[in-house]
Amino acid sequence: FCLTQHAECSLILCRHYEFYFIKEPKTWDEAQRYCREGYKDLATVPNMKYMETLYTDSTETQANAWIGLYSISGKENRRWHWSLPGVEFNAEEMKWRAGEPNDAGGHLENCALIDISDGLLDIRCSNGHPFICYNEQNKSLNFIDSPLHHTDLASGAEQLNEAVSKFKSSDEPLLWIGLFRDTWRWSDGKLSESDRGTRKCAMTELKKEGKWKADDCNTSKPFFCYGDGKFILIKENKRWDEALTYCQLHHHDLVSITNPEEEELVKEKVKNATTPYVWLGLRFSCVFQLWLWVSDRVVCYENWANEKHAGQCGMSVAMETGGEHKWFKKNDAEMFNFICSLR
Question: Locate the C-type lectin domain: which residues (predicted)?
């Protein structure tokens, strides 16, 4: 794992994921909208290795934070999952015993057994049965062995087919596998508006080694986003100095554009702005009598609306949100949306 720290926003690189810790408290829905506008979504955590990095980075100041996990109440909202991380459930690959799954007797049957001779069946998770473990180190399946020596319960169609072949002569026809169902799912799936009143949302308790806990979705908390962006559009109207303070407090800084590639990325962001102009991190320095980026870089790359861009004290630069997205001099006191850099 590679880690980069900012004043109020932490960037955590985990394989193909980049996690951003946002300290500004929001409800779960507000956090989801915020992440989807500027990043990709609320954090999806594929396994606890990722979670360890999140809580290690964040335990200094925060007690808990939203992640992108939520639950919709009602047995009709349950979904099947494999216990082994990274193994996707594919209903078409599953062979169920006739009439299964069926929640027999009106009980919620949220775990699965494999009948070596006749397919899968759902059953109450509290029942006692032998089980099949999977050892990732040597890619082997093991019958009624200590789970401490293995990776997880057997998961996925390939492992089930191997289990049927390997244990078909066993005296125990019914065996636990790593298939279960519940109502929890990640934010980067689909959610209908009608579901919002019956949800619980998950937070991670950063001072308790990243353990997860359900809480009221309307509570305001910091949160984790994930994505691969460099910039975020903030759809709040602020003066230039207020925008600068916001970016430095919640992200990294007001955006500095130093090359055409960065310019194109910013242009894509400003298309969704709610004001005709968007503040950039470029201001006229009364001390040096020239335009300077907030990153202290001089202006090498530029995209002015005209050649006459001599500055004066109290002026900063905003990009037009329509047209050719040119740069314009504006009075610092004007109120616009703005672009923050994330690193």
Answer: 19-134, 175-226, 226-341
